[in-house]
Amino acid sequence: MAILTRLERKKIASPWVRKIITGLGQSKNLSLSDLEPAIQYTEDWIAANQASYVAGLPQPFKANTDASAKVLLFAYTLMKRAGLLS
């Protein structure tokens, strides 16, 4: 999957502040500027670990899904663990 641009990372930060920080009562002491480095780190971590994640996926899931499906599985699993999905 493609690396996000700075503008795309900014588009993540704004709704993230509204939903996660404000809506879920997380720290009010974070600004959009504070989140940008965290988003960049997350993006870098994903890029560095994507091959390992894909290599570890079991068959037949790995062979029968594209990159988008693999990323969605990862994202949905994280969202469920965070209590954002029922």
Write structural notes for this entry:
This protein has helices spanning 6-23, 32-56, 67-81. The chain is built from 3 helices and no strands. The chain is mostly helical and 86 residues long. The model has no long low-confidence stretch (mean pLDDT 86). Helix 1 (6-23) packs across helix 2 (32-56). It is globular. The chain has one domain.
Choose one word for the global shape: globular
Strand fraction equals under 5%
* Total of domains: 1
> What structural class do the secondary elements suggest?
mainly alpha
Distance between the termini: 27 Å
Number of strands: 0
On the 0 to 100 scale, the average pLDDT is 86
What are the low-pLDDT stretches, counting only 5+ consecutive residues below 50?
A: none
What does the main sheet amount to? none
List the helices and strands in order.
Answer: HHH
Number of helices: 3
Outline the fold blueprint.
Layout: H1 6-23, H2 32-56, H3 67-81
Task: Sum this structure up briefly.
The chain is mainly alpha-helical and 86 residues long. 67% of the residues lie in helices and 0% in strands.
Comma- or semicolon-separated keywords:
single chain; 86 residues; mainly alpha; 67% helix; globular
